[in-house]
Specification:
This protein is an all-alpha fold. The chain folds into two domains: 33 residues; 41 residues. Helices cover 73% and strands 0% of the residues. The protein is flat. The termini are far apart.
């Protein structure tokens, strides 16, 4: 691992300074655990989970956008502004 020759900024909290020094190793450990878990998972289950996430994220984003547009349009109608 490459050593860094600079210290974290002084205005950071103590826990941030502690994690700053070992951040790279923690990320590598987390990726190793994730990779080992995925290697032990059946391919069809992994593909199904990936498909579920790929479908649910756009659908939830679309739903949120429809609600926002609905709120904005209802505010415009209540204030007397009509399109």
């Amino acid at each position: 691992m490459e050593e860094r020759n600079y210290e974290p900024p002084e205005n950071w909290m103590d826990w941030e300074k502690d994690y700053y020094t070992s951040y790279d190793s923690m990320i590598c450990e987390a990726m190793a655990v994730l990779q080992s878990q995925l290697m032990n998972t059946r391919p069809s289950l992994a593909l199904g989970m990936m498909a579920l996430v790929m479908l649910s994220v756009p659908m939830s984003t679309t739903l949120i956008m429809f609600h926002l547009v609905d709120m904005i349009m209802s505010k415009l109608v209540f204030t007397g502004f009509h399109l």
